[in-house]
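I hope you will forgive my troubling you with a question about protein structure. The matter concerns a single protein, recorded as an amino acid sequence and a row of backbone structure tokens. Please examine both parts with care and let me know of anything in them that strikes you as inconsistent. Here, with my thanks, is the record as I have it:
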Amino acid sequence: MVKMRIKNNTVVKSAIKVKTSFKDMLEAVDAVNESLKTAKSMREFTESSVAALRYLSTRLALTKRQCILLSVFLDNCFDRDISLGRVADLMHVSVTGMLRLWPDLDKLEERGYIVCSRGGYNGTSYRMPMDILGAFKYDRVYVEPGMGNEKLSLDQLFEQIATLFGRRSDDDLPYAMFLTKIETLLKNNSHLDFVSRLFALHLERESRILLLYFCHLLVTENEVEVGNYDIGKIFEVGKLANIKRQLSLGQHELQREGLIDFSCDYGAVDRTLHCLTDKATKGLLSDVELPSNEYKAGLTSHSEIAAKELFYNEEDERQISDLAGLLSEENYQSIRQRLQEKGMRQGFACLFYGGPGTGKTETVLQLAKQTGRDIMQVDISQVRSKWVGDSEKNVKGVFDQYRKAVGKNKKAPILFFNEADAILNMRQEGAQRAVEKMENSIQNIILEELEKLDGIFIATTNLANNLDPAFERRFLYKVNFHKPTTEARTKIWKSMLPDVAEDRLSALAAEFDFSGGQIENIARHYAIDNILYGANSLDRLRQFCLNERISNYGTRRIGFVV
């Protein structure tokens, strides 16, 4: 339309075309931006955009100035670093004039229309989340998830919590605004049991925020430890020093309530790291599926074990053959029944001890294969946890899992603790250090479990001389794996290198006092060398033996080692 203006008692026609109706918010935003670009003065801009601003203000519940700012940001939404200077230029105001608009910028940030990056390379700048474009595309008023009437699921709640903590950590959200958003998010979703339990603790606001941060890291990041550095990214400087001091002294409200505790490195307390307690996780996160720190021992089917011929000294072979006969299902059940009738323990605990490479581990696997028993192999390094009490829980849990496996399988599986030196050694008398107490506690649990074992337990160790006497009594069968004799070594060489002349292999067996594991290592080296460089000479084979022998005396070899 053409608007009439009066100037010096003269009627003047203005060429400004003012649109008075809009089909959606995008059309109104476009009208505002077009007026900003073409108007020669602020009065002309106001006259040409008054209807569009009135429409946007009514739809969005924002002031007209806030609608102008929002229109400018929408027109530059693909710029991820919009400076205040650029906004000032687009609005035809000075940078100092932008200071008057600061409360309006805060309002847009509070509503989630813009995100402010503070203290970056270019100073304070803004960007618009892509979700805003989607809302305007479908002519919807944007509301941040959890900030309106929409009820979130527990997963959606933690997604939004993660977003807010992430923005706060990146310094994209002022502390006061962050607190407001968190509190609004929680209150708007009080229908969730997690939120109800959190408020039922009646914690101070900062304590509630800190506890929520711990829960967020555990649920969404699988982080069980929270350090002072992480906490420093959330709280403002004025409150941070006091929070850190209270935490280091163990006097924080969350510590007094038994909700968080110091983390430990194999029993040694670290006052800079903290974690949720069982009370907190069970009380707050009982309906959340959490990643478990509990060690899970897998059950390997006997059918998956590759058959392998093993060679022993005469006495070792006799003992292993006797044990294999005992573990055959017919003999095993018969002996269990007779022991039960006599009121004796029915479990079979066996210890295989001897030097490295003498075949202890492979023998366990072949016994499982031969007797048709599945095997539950336990990785001792994973059972031992850095968390106070978790190592003990893990060991207890392994035996609980084994009992369930015995009940579900037709044949009792073999519970196998490989390289168990660390947990079968001498207990510490008068243990004072936390790690020593933990080790003793683990050993006591194993001793107790072996006492009531109803199944088959086999442990291997290289250090039998350091075996605790209490363990020695618990093992019904103890098999000493010796280094193979010359005759046994010859058989091992033949099985590994069938294409090499027997007299040559016999000479190697006589010259080098290797274990079966060392012979296998040399044979693999010889085979790989043959694949890479063609047919090997016997001199090369002997050189590999010399290299292996050198390694026995601690000389470090240089080159290709398998």
The mean pLDDT is 84. The chain has four domains: 3-113+120-137, 154-284, 299-481, 486-552.
